[in-house]
Amino acid sequence: MITFFVIGLTVHVVFFISIFDIYFTSPLVHGMTPHSTPLEPPASRLVLVVADGLRADSLFTPLPNGSSRTPYLRGIIEDKGTWGVSHTRVPTESRPGHVALIAGFYEDVSAVAKGWKENPVEFDSVFNESRHTWCWGSPDILPMFAKGASGDHVYTHTYPAVEEDFASTDASKLDSWVFTQVKSFFKSAQSNSTLKASLWEDKNVFFLHLLGIDTNGHAHRPMSQEYLDNIGLVDAGLAEVVSIIEDFFDNDGKTAYVFTSDHGMTNWGSHGAGHPSETLTPLVAWGAGVQKAKGVTEPQPYNDGFLQDWKLEHLRRVDVSQADIAPLMASLIGVPIPVNSVGVLPLLYLNNSERFKAESMYTNAIQVLEQFKMKMMQKKETTLSFLFTPYQYIPFCKELIDRNKSLVYYHTYDRFFLGCSVVLGFVGWTSYVVLVILKTHLVFFSCVQIPGRNLARLCTCVAVVITVFLLIQRSPITYYIYCLLPVPVWYSVLKDAQNFTCVSLTVRNKPGSCMAVYFCCPQVVSFFHRAMLTVGLAVLSLWPFLSGLFGKAKSRSLSWLVGCLCLAAFPLMPVVGREPNIHLMLLVAVCAYVPSLTHSSLQQKRGLPLLNQIISWSTLASSIFVPLLSSTRLFHRLLSIFLSLTSTYLLLSTGSEALFPPVLSWLMFVWINIEQEALLAQGMSSRQESGVCSHFLYFCFPLPSFDPASVYCFLTVFNPFIMGGLMMWKVLLFLIVLVISDLMALHFFFMVQDYGSWLDIGTSISHYVIVMSMTIFLMLLSVVTHVLTSQRLVLWRQRKMHFP
Which keywords annotate this record (predicted)? Predict the structure, then answer.
C-alpha cells in the first residue's frame, strides 16, 4: 500500500503541474524592436482617465427628465469628441482590463497563479514607451505598470490599501483624493522649474485611476444612489481637472484626452464573466488629434438598441475592442506601439492626414508581424527541421492584425505533443489501478506465470529514445518529466499483466464497486449542471421503498424520503446574483448572531466590528480541533463534527444556503440508522463506526454559493488571496463529497481552458485539481476517520475519587 500511495502521489502531482505547462504558459515574447510612426504626432501629451467598474449604460443613459448626470462628458460627446463602446474581453477584472488598455494585449493567462497584483512576465506598455508618466490612484493597479517600466520615468501616487473598504461610508472619497492630488500636483509645478520643464516635454502621459465607482458598485450595487452619485462626482471632478491642465499649458491645443473604463458590472455588483453589463464600457476621446463629433442622418450599423435608449442616434458611434485603445494613444503622442500589442488602430478616432493614418496603420501591422516572426524563430530553433510545420497563413496588414491566428498557432505548438504524453500516463495509471482492484476483488484458482525479462530492456530503450529526442530539441526539463513518467508506469502495468493468466475466478461481493461506476457519469455532469444532483437525490429518496426497508423501519424511511427531497432543492438555488437573506439565517441558532450583526453594521455603513472579526477567525481556527474534545461514542462524535464544521460554514453564508447543513446532517443521521437496520437484517455486525464516519464525512460538507459578501464576517478590505482562500475553504467543504475516478481526471484534462473569464478558467482548473486530489484524499481519509472516531483530547486530568 505504501508503494501504491507513493506512485499515486507522484503521478498526480506531476500531471497536476502539467496543465500549467500545457495550457497556462505566457503568450508574450520578447526581443522585438519597437516601431513608431515617423511623422509628427498631433499631441504632445495624453490624459488617460479610467473609471474603474463603470458600465456604458450608466454613463450614456440620460435621466428621466432628459438631462444627464454627466453634463460635462455629454457635452464632449455632442460637440468636441468621438465616442463609442469599448468591448472588453473576459476576464472582466481590473488587472486584465488595464493591461488591455495600456499594453494593447489581452491578459496573460499565466497570471492565474499570481492574482491581479503580480505581473507573470514583464511586458511593454504605452507608459513604458512614454517620456514621463504620472499616475494617481489605487495601489492595486499603478505599481504593476511602474514595476514593468524600463527606467524610472513612471511616477505613482497611491492612497493606502486599507482605504479600499467595501464597508466604507462613502467610497467616492477615493476619486476625490485623486482629483485633489492632481490639482495639487499642477499647482506645485508652477513654482518648481524642474518639474515644470518635464511637464512641457512631449510624449508625456497623465493617468488617473478612479476606483470609487467600482467600490460603491460592489458594496451597494450599480443601481444604488451611491454608485450613480459617484458617476456625477467623477464628471464634475474631470471637468475641473481638464480646466486646470488647459490653463497650465496655456491652452496650446496639444493635449489629448481619453476617458474609459476597465470593465463593467452586473446588477448584483460582481464582474469577471462575459455578461454585456460587464463587457460593455464607455469610451470618449477628445482634444489634439481626435476627430470631433459628427452628426449622422442614416441608420448606424448597430442593432443593440442602445443608440435610441441613450438618445445618441444622431451622433456617429465608433465601437472598438479594448486593446485597440493602446495603439490609439500611442499614435496620438507619437510613441512606439507596445511590442506585444494586438490591438487594431481605430482610424475613425483620428483627425489627421490620410498619410498619417496610413503610416500609423502600417506601423500597427509591422508590430504584430514582428511578434509572429519572433514566435516562429523561437519554435523553429527548438524543433527538428523535419518535424517543424510553419504557419502557412500570411495576410496583409489589417488582416494580419485582425486574424492573429499565427501567434496562437506557435504559442500552442507543443500542446498536442504534451497532451499525448499526459494521456499515456493517465491511461497507464488507470490501468495500474484496475489491476490492483482485480487483485483485491478477484480470487484466482490458478495462474500461469509469464516471464518478463525482456520488458525491462524494452522500457529502458524507450526511455533512452525519448531522452535523446528531447535533448536534440532542447526541451525544458519539465518536458522530460511528462514524457518519461509514463514509461515506468506502463512497465508496472505490463509486468503485473504478464504475471498471470486467469484460468477461472470468482468475483467477491463488492456492490460498492458497481455503484462507483454507475455514479461516475452523473457526477461529471453535476459539475456543469447542478440540477443533476437534484435528480440523483430524488431517485435516492426511493431507496428504502425499493430495497424493502420501508416495512422494517417506516418512520426512518419516511424521514429519509423527506430529507432527500428537502436536500434536492439546494442545487436549484443560484450560486451568484441573489441578494443576501439574513432572515433565513436566523432560523439557524448556531453562529447566526455574528452574520446578523455584521450585516446590520455594513448596512448602516459603520464598518466591520472588530469583535465580530475576532469571533469569526477564532471559530475558523478552532473548528478543526473542537471535535477531538468530545466523546468518542459514534453519535456524540459525529454531532460534534457537524456542529464544528457548520459553525464556520454559517459565517460564510449569506442566505438560504445556511439551511443546507442542518438538512444534510439530518439526512445523514437517518441514513446511518437505516444502514444499521440493513446490516442487522443481513446478520452482519452493526459496529462499523469507522466506515460509517467515513461516509458521514463525505457528505457532511455543504453546497456552496459564491457571493463575495460571504466573507464579510472576516474582512471587508479588498484582499484577493485571503478572500479567495476563505471562499475555497467554503468550496472544499462541499467538493470532497465527489468521490471521482481517474477517468474523470482524464475527462477534465481535455476541458481545461486558457481563455474566458477567471470564473471559467478557474472552474476548469478546479475541476481538474479536485479529481486529481481524490485518490490522495481517499487514502488519507481512513487515517482521519480513525483519529476523529477513536481519539480524544484531554485538557486536564481529573483526580480519581475513592468512595468507602
Answer: Endoplasmic reticulum, Glycoprotein, GPI-anchor biosynthesis, Membrane, Transferase, Transmembrane, Transmembrane helix
DSSP codes, 399-434:
HHHHTTHHHHHHHTTTHHHHHHHHHHHHHHHHHHHH
Burial of 228 per CB tally in 10 Å (0-12, 13-18, 19+): middle
- Give burial (CB, 10 Å; 0-12/13-18/19+) of 99: buried
Residues 6+ apart with CB under 8 A from 139: 158, 159, 160, 161
Cell numbers linked to 693: 464516519
Three cell numbers written together for 668: 445523514
Q: Are 743 and 430 in contact (CB under 8 A)?
A: yes
Smallest CA-to-CA distance from 576 within 670, 708, 448 is with 708
- Cell numbers for 123, please give them: 511586458
Pairwise CA distance, residues 352 & 332, whole Å: 10
pLDDT at 174: 94
State the Cα–Cα distance between residues 773 and 775, nearest whole angstrom.
Answer: 6
Coarse DSSP helix, strand, coil percentages of the chain, rounded to the nearest 5 percent:
55, 10, 35
Rounded Cα gap, residues 335 and 328, in angstroms? 10
Cα of 508 vs its chain's centroid, Å: 45
Residue recorded with cell 459603520: 606
- Distance (Å, whole) CA 357 – CA 364: 10
Strand-pair category, 204-210 with 255-260: unpaired
Pair 130, 149: CB distance under 8 Å: no
Kind of pairing between the strands at 320-321 and 132-137: unpaired
CA–centroid distance for 632 within its chain: 41
Q: What is the DSSP string of 143-188?
A: HHHHHTSSSS-EEEEE--GGG-BTT-S-TTHHHHHHHHHHHHHHHH
| Cα 50 to Cα 635: distance, rounded to the nearest angstrom | 58
- The amino acid present at 297, given as its one-letter code, is T
C-alpha dist (Å) from residue 410 to 20, 375, 421, 756, 760: 17, 6, 19, 20, 24
The DSSP letter of residue 739 is: -
List the grid coordinates of 588: 439557524
With contact defined as beta carbons under 8 Å apart, do 739 and 703 qualify?
Answer: no
Distances (CA, A) of 69 to 232, 236, 278, 736, 744: 6, 10, 21, 50, 53
- Phi then psi for residue 610, to 5 deg, are -60, -40
632 conformational bin, left if phi > 0, alpha if psi -120 to 50, beta if neither: alpha
Bridge pairing between strands 154-158 and 132-137: parallel
β-strands 132-137, 280-287 pairing = unpaired
Q: Where are the alpha helices (DSSP H) in 289-324?
A: 306-309
Spatial separation of the C-alpha atoms in residues 233 and 237, rounded to whole Å:
6
As a whole number of angstroms, the distance between CA 210 and CA 232 comes to 13
How many Cβ atoms sit within 10 Å of the Cβ of residue 390?
A: 12
Rounded CA separation 29/124 (Å)? 10
Question: Residue 711 corresponds to which cell in the numbers above?
Answer: 466573507
Q: HSE of 722 in the Cβ direction (CA atoms, 13 Å)?
A: 10
- Alpha helices by DSSP H, 190-259: 193-199, 212-220, 225-248
- Res 713 pLDDT > 50: yes
Residue by residue, DSSP assigns 79-102 as IIEEEEEEE--SS--HHHHHHHHH
- Copy the grid coordinates of residue 585: 439565517
Q: Which residues contact 550 (CB under 8 A, 6 or more apart)?
A: 544, 557
pLDDT in tens, 485-535: 899 888 888 887 765 554 444 444 443 333 444 344 565 576 667 777 788
Q: How far apart are CA 666 and CA 567, in angstroms?
A: 10
Listed in sequence order, the DSSP H helices in 499-592 are: 511-526, 531-540, 543-547, 554-567, 582-585
